[in-house]
Amino acid sequence: MTVMTGWDLFEDLRNAQDEQLRMNRLRAQRLGQLGQLGQLGQQYDAGMSAQAWAPAVDITERKDAYLVAVELPGVGLDDLEITFQDGLLTVQGQRRVAADSSEERVHRAEQRYGAFRRSIMLPTHVKADAIEASTQNGVLRILMPKAEEAHAKRIQVRVGDGPAAPTAGDDSDTRG
Predict the structure, then answer these.
(1) How far apart (Å, rounded) are the C-alpha atoms in residues 155 and 166?
(2) For residue 42, what pLDDT is reported?
(3) What tens digit of pLDDT does each residue of 25-59 get?
């Protein structure tokens, strides 16, 4: 006698995902990072905590500029803000969950949704008014041209009791 049982291809996957979400919730509670996950399908509770996320960032330096590349697939321009102040570049925004359909059943959800913020400290010799940002294929590129380097100034030391006032036509170099 042969016994046949039904097998759901995605049951193991759903069970593993549910366990991972439970672990994420516990970790978030410990770290105090509770938030709303939102609608990702019917099997998720609206009160589950979202795991904090931040987009991946690459920072490179050229002779004339710094280039910051930020992975932001699915983030609309209206949901993105970039600021630069006192050498601190901040990229913040939000990735929203796609419209949820009652006919769809989520089998795996690995992408992170919700608000994010990345702050990167850069040298202050950046031309803030010349910073440019563009996006292509889900990658935000921020080009920050360097300001001219401040050149060291040689201070001439004179012999005497106090600071000497320069005399007209005194261009002598006393390098000793």
Answers:
(1) 13
(2) 32
(3) 676 666 554 443 333 333 333 333 345 688 999 99
> What is the structure's pLDDT at 110?
80
For the stretch 35-42, contacts whose Cβ atoms lie closer than 8 Å and that sit 24 or more positions apart, written own/partner, are 35/114, 36/114, 37/113, 37/114, 38/97, 38/113, 38/114, 39/97, 39/100, 40/97, 40/100, 40/106, 40/109, 40/113, 41/100, 41/104, 41/105, 41/106, 41/109, 42/102, 42/105
CA angle 95, 97, 99 (to 5 degrees): 140
- Give the whole-angstrom CA distance, residue 51 versus residue 114: 9
The pLDDT of residue 170 is: 52
148-163: average pLDDT: 73
What's the residue count for the chain? 176
Count of CA atoms in the C-beta half-sphere (13 A) of 67: 11
Cα distance between residue 117 and residue 93, in whole Å? 7
pTM for this entry: 0.56
